[in-house]
Specification:
Keywords: Amino-acid biosynthesis, ATP-binding, Cytoplasm, Histidine biosynthesis, Hydrolase, Nucleotide-binding. Pathway: Amino-acid biosynthesis; L-histidine biosynthesis; L-histidine from 5-phospho-alpha-D-ribose 1-diphosphate: step 2/9. This protein is 81% helix and 0% strand. It has a single domain, classed as Helix Hairpins, CATH 1.10.287.
Length: 116
């Protein structure tokens, strides 16, 4: 993993630890105590804010977009930790899809659903 992605690894490790220890006074603990519904609400809220920021012009708009992307990624990682899924599992899934057209991958996924 490149050095620029090390903060993600450290954050995931911290979130995994907080999911297990649930320290008082932690925002992550508060989210996890509220469960998937609250975490999901935050993800949807942050996704909406990210989309809005994407249309903001100039350097300030770009900085706001980066900020909102960070919020969305953080809340997504909280949900992964809540569910007990490591970032490496997501990376492996993306690696599995590498080199496959998104349209083909989606068609294969839909076919698998109808076969079940």
């Amino acid at each position: 993993m490149s050095d620029s992605l090390l903060p993600l690894r450290r954050l995931m490790q911290t979130l995994t630890e907080r999911a297990q220890s649930r320290p008082e006074g932690s925002y992550t603990t508060k989210l996890m105590a509220a469960g998937t519904g609250k975490i999901g609400e935050k993800i949807l809220e942050e996704a909406h804010e990210l989309i809005e920021a994407a249309d903001e012009p100039g350097d300030a708009g770009r900085q706001h977009f980066v900020y909102e992307a960070g919020d969305l990624i953080y809340h997504t990682l909280v949900l992964l930790a809540y569910r007990g899924v490591d970032l490496d599992e997501v990376a492996a899934e993306l690696g599995r899809r590498e080199g496959t057209s998104g349209l083909v991958e989606k068609a294969n996924r839909n076919q698998t659903k109808t076969d079940q």
